[in-house]
Amino acid sequence: MATRIIRKGISLAVRGLGSNMEGVDREVTLRTAYQNVAQKVFECTTANGRDKQDVELLPVSKLKPATDLEILYKHEGVRHFGENYVQELVGKAAVLPRDVKWHFIGSLQTNKCKQLARIENLYAVETVDSLQKAKKLAEARAKYCPEAEAIRCSIEINTSGEEQKAGLSEEADILEVVEFFLSGDSKHVILHGLMTIGSWDASHGEAEENKDFAKLVEWKKKLDSKYRLDLKLSMGMSADYAQAIKQGSNEIRVGVGIFGARPPRKA
Ligand SMILES: *Cc1c(COP(=O)(O)O)cnc(C)c1O
User: Fold this and answer.
1) N6-(pyridoxal phosphate)lysine occurs at which residues (predicted)?
2) Which CATH number characterizes residue 146's domain?
3) Is the pTM of this model over 0.90?
């Protein structure tokens, strides 16, 4: 598959569509990287005895141009993208097709919830880490786009205990947010799962198991049995997705592994 694309890239360039040489190169690079990751995810999923549809690959496109997303949309059939910055997401949502399903995976600020919830094709917010933010998302969705699909929310849990990481870690706080979603007070947000970013140490250590991922799995078990749920787990990034799949992840979020190194964020 990859060779076919590379040949196509070369032949397009040779045919004198050279004005867009860089675009052609980018298309080849990006599609090849995407296909490689997708293939590895597939192999890893089946090697662990899991079903293909149990693990989704979410390309994380933060700080990458909309043209990159367009390539994967057009040629690889990708519809789900993960973004970290509200302003950037608003801009991309305005220029890319309406059937893109946006996942917000960045650190969520209370005062940005409104802007986020107004994006009609916002599909998921994976970083809900307070009751207040959950409520803000629900209110804004109800007010500004009541006809849009409910936002699938995941509760971010700080599994590593690192201070600089977002996410809830106290049981009472977690239960409070879960219970808000389950109360049925809002049909504009639904509880989908749990999300975590493991520590660098846990994903680069010698241990057989990633202890941060294991902690998220523990939370799932606890909440699933208490409330009779089947929460989905979003864990694993470029460096540690194989391990995350092994430990039960349902969604891995891959940025650099697909799009390459990111430019620094401009202030
Ligand atoms: C940037 C980011 C990713 C992607 O990380 P890579 O190392 O580029 O794969 C995944 N999850 C979150 C929350 C991110 O902010």
Assistant:
1) 62
2) 3.20.20.10
3) yes
